[in-house]
């Protein structure tokens, strides 16, 4: 998650840590290292508290970044023609998982929707565990509340008629026994109860930080896969942000980046569709001024080879790129801060108003909306989309609504050389991005064949 918020004419370049310490068991001994489940990355707060959204031209003049609203995204991703056909996500449910959540999420979504002339929707909140009372002075809580706001508003922007279920988990930094296991337990419970067609996860932990990794023991990750295995059986689509550290990611302290190429889980899991990041170049009507680039400004779209998972069969067609490993991302959506999304929030009484947010934790809920549209178009859950996605890419990609990102930009970050966006699949953008008018019906059709 990268945040660029505006303050009444005052710009500040401060770092917001949104870290929650987790361990990988319900009774981990003190000697077991903790792994951080964080919103895809800790972000930068540039400005905050704007009374109303500005145009991209105004954002450029004030803060030297582009800023986009949902109406621009709808034009950019060719969504309006789908809405006119009645494909709005109706009858489908998006599950969003965030620690702590936000106490003002419904109010904030209502304000956001009204601002842009969208119908609002009811957010059903499920509290998993003893979620502590919200403390606006707690940086962990406000970081996750910002993530929650972004997730809910972006999913709604793309699939306005879809139901949203927000799962708030009780990550507590002092306990070290909750976090990723609790998130997975919550997801499995909802799947087993038939709640949700697509799950959006805007969090991740570097594979290298899991207990046993250094010894080649990957059981601490593999023992957490039960929710995804359950989702695969029940035909629920699972998405995860590829991260905002380019080809590297955060070490155990949550602040320092590895000086080598690493990957993060759950994005690296073959049962999960990994969502990378692009930078859009739009005018105020949402028309492209030039093709999409790889997100690389205040963060960079995560991508590379997993050190835990070998190449899954659905990536056999891109083995010349991924080699013998699982490669991420699979597909990408808007994530750059320079080209970030307007969001509205009021969970922090000192910063009520509008801000601009980016990161692959923006891209992931955007794509969850796309999946909800495909579910509606298909008349059933499209489920695990990996085989269908790579099949659409391999055969008539353009007519299937897959748009290549190939402008030569890359996801190098923090001194670690990344990967370039080239023709076809790459480890910076995956198969590319989408033209929803073509992609949604193509995915719906392909899902019937798998």
Describe the structure.
The chain has twelve helices and 23 strands. The chain has 450 residues and is α/β, with parallel strands linked by helices. The radius of gyration is 19 Å and the shape is globular. The two termini are 33 Å apart. About 10% of the residues have low confidence.
Major sheet: size, sense and barrel closure?
8 strands, mixed
Structural class: alpha/beta
The count of strands amounts to 23
Rg calculated over all Cα atoms: 19 Å
Note poorly predicted spans. Answer: 4-34, 40-45, 173-178
DSSP helical segment count: 12
Choose one word for the global shape: globular
Quote the distance from N terminus to C terminus.
Answer: 33 Å
What is the percentage of strand-forming residues? Answer: 15-25%
What is the average per-residue confidence, as pLDDT, rounded to a whole number?
88
Helix content: 25-40%
């Amino acid at each position: 998650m990268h945040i660029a918020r505006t303050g009444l004419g005052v710009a500040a370049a401060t770092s917001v840590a949104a870290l929650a310490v987790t361990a990988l068991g319900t009774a981990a001994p003190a000697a077991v290292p903790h792994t951080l489940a964080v919103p895809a990355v800790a972000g930068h707060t540039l400005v905050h508290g704007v009374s109303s959204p500005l145009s991209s031209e105004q954002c450029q003049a004030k803060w030297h970044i582009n800023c986009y609203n949902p109406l621009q995204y709808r034009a950019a991703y060719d969504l309006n023609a789908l809405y006119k056909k009645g494909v709005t996500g109706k009858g489908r449910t998006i599950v969003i998982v965030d620690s702590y959540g936000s106490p003002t999420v419904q109010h904030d979504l209502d304000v956001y929707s009204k601002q842009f002339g969208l119908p609002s929707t009811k957010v059903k909140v499920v509290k998993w565990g003893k979620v502590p009372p919200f403390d606006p002075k707690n940086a962990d809580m406000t970081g996750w509340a910002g993530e929650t706001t972004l997730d809910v508003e972006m999913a709604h922007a793309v699939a306005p008629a879809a139901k949203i279920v927000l799962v708030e988990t009780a990550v507590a930094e002092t306990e070290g026994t909750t976090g990723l296991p609790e998130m997975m337990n919550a997801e499995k419970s909802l799947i087993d109860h038939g709640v949700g067609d697509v799950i959006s996860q805007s969090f991740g932990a570097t594979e290298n930080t899991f207990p046993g990794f250094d010894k080649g023991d990957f059981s601490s990750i593999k023992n957490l896969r039960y929710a995804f295995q359950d989702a695969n059986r029940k035909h629920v689509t699972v998405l995860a942000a590829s991260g905002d550290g380019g080809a590297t990611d955060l070490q155990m302290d949550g602040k320092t980046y590895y000086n080598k190429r690493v990957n993060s889980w759950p994005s690296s899991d073959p049962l999960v569709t990994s969502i990378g990041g692009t930078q859009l170049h739009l005018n105020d009507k949402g028309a492209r001024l030039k093709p999409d680039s790889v997100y690389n400004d205040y963060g960079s779209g995560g991508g590379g080879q997993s050190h835990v998972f070998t190449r899954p069969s659905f990536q056999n067609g891109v083995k010349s790129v991924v080699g013998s490993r699982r490669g991420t991302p699979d597909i990408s959506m808007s994530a750059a801060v320079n080209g970030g999304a307007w969001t509205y929030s009021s969970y922090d009484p000192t910063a009520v108003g509008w801000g601009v947010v980016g990161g692959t934790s923006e891209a992931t809920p955007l794509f969850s909306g796309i999946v909800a549209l495909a579910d509606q178009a298909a008349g059933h859950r499209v489920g695990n989309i990996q085989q269908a996605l790579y099949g659409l890419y391999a055969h008539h990609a353009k007519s299937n609504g897959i748009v290549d990102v190939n402008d030569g930009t890359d996801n190098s970050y923090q001194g670690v050389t990344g990967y370039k966006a080239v023709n076809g699949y790459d480890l910076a953008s995956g198969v590319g991005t989408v033209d929803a008018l073509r992609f949604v019906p193509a995915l719906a059709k392909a899902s019937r064949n798998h």
